[in-house]
Specification:
The protein has two domains: 158 residues, Molybdenum Cofactor Biosythetic Enzyme, Chain A; 58 residues, TATA-Binding Protein, CATH 3.30.310.50. The two termini are 32 Å apart. The strands form three sheets. Strands 2-1-3-8-7-6 form a six-stranded mixed β-sheet, sandwiched between helices. Strands 9-11-10 form a three-stranded antiparallel β-sheet, with helices on one face. The chain is of the alpha/beta class. The chain is built from eight helices and eleven strands.
Length: 234
């Protein structure tokens, strides 16, 4: 399964809010074997949301959208997702009933627009907040509040599957530029193993692949051929 993650919010683009949702979703999807192909951060704009959702829906098996749910003036994600599919938004009676029966809200307490969803969508109830999410075709729409997003994702997590990649880390005390030849040889020897290197106070080399034994063998091969960092890394 290939997926795209779309995070919506002017506050993300201005830097007022750290985009932790994208990182969390990518990690969760990767652990389930899903290949995340793109991450988009876009403003609270119906046209931008519709365009990115439409293009991503056509290109990937699943699209996960987070942020911009609710009845306030800048919560336009539902309208944008609906526009991507040429649908209207309307009050969802199932969502409204759930909020009064399980959420502890009286019907009169809900601000108009709270339960407006794209026509024909599947409701995702919000166990940690108010605004519901939804699923339209293979587009999943979650709140932007991290606790609400995580709880809602947990309800549909089993719908995201793929070939799980096994991971081994190798720590090197040499500059990344000096490891290029050994990376090239590793790729030749272990064709199904992907190599990623991340410099910092030392170089972390991430090896991943579908066959755990092959990844372990590749990691052992590389460890024998690199200088370790000065201090042992756990």
């Amino acid at each position: 399964m290939q997926a795209a993650v779309v995070t919506v919010g002017d506050e993300l683009l201005s830097g007022d809010t750290e985009n932790t949702n994208a990182t969390w979703l990518c990690r969760e999807l990767t652990e389930r074997g899903v290949s995340v192909e793109r991450v988009f951060t876009i403003p609270d704009d119906i046209g931008d949301i519709a365009q990115i959702v439409n293009e991503s829906y056509a290109a990937y098996d699943a699209v996960l959208v987070t942020g911009g749910l609710g009845p306030t003036h800048d919560d336009v994600t539902m309208e944008g997702v609906a526009a991507a599919f040429g649908r209207d938004v309307e009050k969802n009676e199932e969502a409204a009933a759930w909020l009064t029966e399980h959420g502890g809200y009286a019907a009169g307490d809900l601000v108009d627009g709270t339960t407006h969803l794209p026509v024909g969508s599947r409701v995702l109830h919000n166990e940690e907040g108010v605004a519901p999410g939804c699923v339209v075709e293979s587009v999943y729409v979650f709140p932007g509040v991290p606790a609400e997003m995580k709880a809602m994702f947990a309800e549909v997590a089993d719908e995201f599957t793929g070939e799980v990649q096994h991971v081994e880390l190798v720590h090197a005390g040499e500059p990344e530029s000096q490891l290029v030849d050994r990376f090239a040889e590793l790729r030749e020897r272990f064709e199904d193993v992907q190599v990623g290197s991340y410099p910092g106070d030392h170089v972390r080399v991430k090896l991943s692949g579908p066959d755990e034994s092959v990844v372990v063998e590749a990691a052992a091969w590389l460890r024998e051929r690199v200088d370790p960092p000065e201090e042992t890394v756990e």
